[in-house]
Design brief:
The structure holds two protein chains of two kinds. Chain A is of the alpha/beta class. Helices cover about 45% and strands about 15% of the residues of chain A. Helices cover about 40% and strands about 15% of the residues of chain B. The chains are: A alpha/beta, B alpha/beta.
């Protein structure tokens, strides 16, 4: 079986790589947790690229129901057609639309399915998918048809821990918690985005960034994606690296909560 | 060797079941850990543990079971290594007086001896240890033995476990804003309210059928959370060490937007005839007004250490602030609050070990009390969620 080894645009830790391969080998969904901005969603794209499989993305929202991932029966359309006599109303199949999971099951080749931010949905949402993820098949009573996976898709699920997931669901997953990258790892990640960044600027910026991260009084500490944005801004504005030592230029890229910005300003002033 | 690990995990309250265990065995049988303890650490963790809050407990269990036993895993690694080395059997010096063993025999004997051996052995010809002519161990002389042990390079799993980097993610530690939110989000009561703008499929079909097939669309109001929550917080004095914690709970409750109504008030040590709208206790609102303003089904969360001088709770006029003359004792006011709002809980930031304090005990009798931790808040929310049916 092919193994996941990371891609050139996505830096992956050894542990995460192992977790992906375990989930591939034992064919269980991979559940990813971690701070926002640690690359949970991007991982699925990287797996798909590395294994050369298509990626199907199912973005979960607070109103999403489990059923929508399997199939939708468009009754309103059918009612409408029956009234105005459009097409063959007797053919229910015409009104069955497969969801992302359904699409993955019928795909002629193995695919990667991303169920993004599963915790956004209702508390019961994961429970409604238990059997489908276990057996990788479901039944459409309307057409008396069973949709069965031709190839078990690799399922990646991300969660921001907004809601706790049910135990029965967790039992079926391989779990990985993406830790916040340390300085060395971060340098590698930055290198992917900015291969030519000035080393002095990077060093100063990283120092400031980790200093902010280590503070406990911030409501929302900056994350990787904010660091990348900040670096991008610093580079394109041509900020002098020396300036970063004494203050935080373009602080709006890093600090997003209005309660936090006075705190940061106060401390950078007192450092003078 | 692995079964004790399973039970240690269970003993440390990690919810592992047979399902996970069989999955792990399946993964091991596919040799996904590559016979290494380091990778076993991560492999087992990703399969057995499903929350970062349990990683610390996992680290502890791992230390209990595998610390000092790294060699057993390495053994297999080196066994394979050794297999590669002896392609040419003539390479070895002849030692006719010691029986040579085949790899299978050797492995069998090795595992057998592993089970039997309870202590260190050095020298001798039987046990695993250093020196001697036993086929197992290192520093000895045996033509076809297994050498194992010795320092490994890099960060071993045991070392990673020893760092206990995940101690901060534990559930029973005092919680942060995010975890407060997770717990509070479960507090909800869905009812259909507002404009009728959601198409009800079932009712539409029903109505259409009754209408002899002429389409009739039925709309319904959306489901919305009808939960009302009041947060009453003790400020000042003995609560000062918990300011950050209170701040966390407050901002969590504030940002959980799904409550129908959310309001917060402050008090000092005990609730008397009024509560305050600001932290400095300058503007107040009489408790009677609160009673009028909020319905009986409102859920109340009181946060305070309930630790005070007994007269503040039991005597009329005992309030700690001199301008707060109270003809009715504090405990009576607490009783009234509970009577008015049967769904009231008290969260106490004091560690549970200190709860034998007289006033804490007295308050606890009036209002169900929970520690201000993730687990405590979850329990409290469960109680609030269920609601008091007799008085609803």
């Amino acid at each position: 079986m092919s193994q996941y080894k990371g891609t050139s645009d996505y830096i992956v830790s050894k542990e995460l790589q192992d977790a992906v391969n375990v989930s591939l080998a034992i064919q269980r969904p991979l559940l990813l947790k971690g701070e926002p901005g640690t690359g949970k969603t991007l991982l699925a794209a990287s797996i798909a690229a590395s294994l050369n499989r298509p990626l199907l993305r199912w973005n979960v929202k607070s109103t999403t129901k489990a059923q929508e991932g399997l199939y939708l029966y468009d009754t309103v359309q059918r009612l409408n057609d029956s009234r105005f006599g459009d097409g063959n109303v007797r053919d229910i199949k015409r009104y069955i639309k497969l969801g992302k999971l359904g699409e993955a099951f019928v795909a002629p080749e193995p695919v990667v399915v991303l169920i993004d931010e599963i915790d956004k949905a209702d508390l019961e949402f994961p429970n409604d998918l238990l059997a489908e993820l276990d057996e990788m098949r479901f039944y459409i009573p309307e057409t008396n048809e069973e949709i069965k996976a031709k190839h078990r898709p690799m399922v990646v699920i991300t969660s921001n821990a907004e809601k706790e997931l049910p135990d029965a669901f967790l039992r079926r997953c391989v779990f990985h918690f993406i830790e916040f990258p340390d300085v060395e790892m971060m340098k590698k990640i930055v290198a992917v985005h900015f291969p030519q960044i000035e080393s002095k600027l990077l060093q100063h910026a990283l120092n400031k960034f980790y200093e902010l991260r280590s503070r406990t009084d911030l409501r929302k500490p900056p994350s990787t994606s904010e660091l990348i944005d900040w670096l991008h801004a610093l580079v394109s504005m041509g900020v002098n690296p020396k300036l970063i030592e004494t203050e935080i230029p373009l602080v709006g890229c890093l600090i997003k909560k209005d309660e936090d910005s006075p705190k940061v300003k106060r401390s950078s002033r007192s450092a003078h | 060797m692995l079964l004790p690990f399973f039970y240690t995990l269970k003993a440390l309250k990690i919810p592992v079941g047979t399902h996970e265990w069989l999955t792990l065995l399946e993964a091991l049988s596919q040799n996904l850990n590559d016979a290494s303890l380091d990778r076993f650490y991560h492999l087992a963790r990703s399969i057995l543990v499903k929350s970062e809050s349990l990683f610390d407990a996992y680290d502890q269990a791992f230390l209990i079971c595998f610390k000092g036993r790294e060699g057993e895993f390495k053994a297999k690694e080196e066994l394979l290594d050794w297999l590669n080395k002896i392609v040419d059997p003539n390479n070895r010096p002849a030692m006719p007086d010691i029986p040579q063993l085949s790899l299978e025999e050797l492995r069998k004997k090795f595992l057998e001896r592993m089970r039997e051996q309870m202590e260190e052995h050095h020298g001798g010809s039987h046990w695993i240890g250093t020196g001697g002519t036993s086929p197992f161990g290192h520093g000895g002389a045996h033509p076809s033995g297994i050498r194992f042990g010795g320092p490994g390079g890099g960060r071993s799993a045991v070392k990673v476990a020893e760092e206990r980097r995940f101690a901060n993610y534990r559930n029973d530690r005092i919680l942060d804003t995010r975890q407060f939110k997770v717990a509070l989000k479960r507090l909800r009561k869905l009812d259909r309210v507002g404009p009728q703008d959601e198409l009800s499929l079932e009712k539409s079909i029903d109505a259409t059928c009754k209408n002899a097939g002429d389409i009739e669309l039925v709309f319904e109001a959306e489901k919305k959370n009808q939960m009302e929550l009041l947060l009453l917080m003790d400020v000042g004095g003995s609560m000062d060490p918990y300011v950050e914690l209170m701040d966390g709970l407050f901002s969590a409750a504030h940002s959980v937007k799904h409550f129908k109504a959310f309001q917060h008030y402050y008090f000092h040590n005990c609730i008397y005839s009024k509560v305050f709208t600001d932290m400095h206790r300058r503007d107040s609102i009489p408790l009677d007004d609160i009673f009028k303003k909020y319905r009986k089904s409102t859920r109340i969360i009181v946060v305070g250490d309930a630790c005070m001088n007994p007269y503040e709770l039991f005597s009329p006029g005992g309030a700690i602030d001199y301008w707060e003359h109270n003809p009715t004792a504090g405990i009576e006011w607490l009783k009234r609050v509970r009577q008015q709002y049967p769904n009231t809980v008290w969260l106490n930031p004091e560690p549970q070990g200190f709860w034998d304090h007289m006033t804490i005990q007295a308050v606890k009798k009036q209002i169900p009390m929970f520690p201000l931790t993730v687990d405590g808040l979850t329990e409290a929310v469960d109680l609030l969620r269920a609601g008091n049916t007799q008085l609803a």
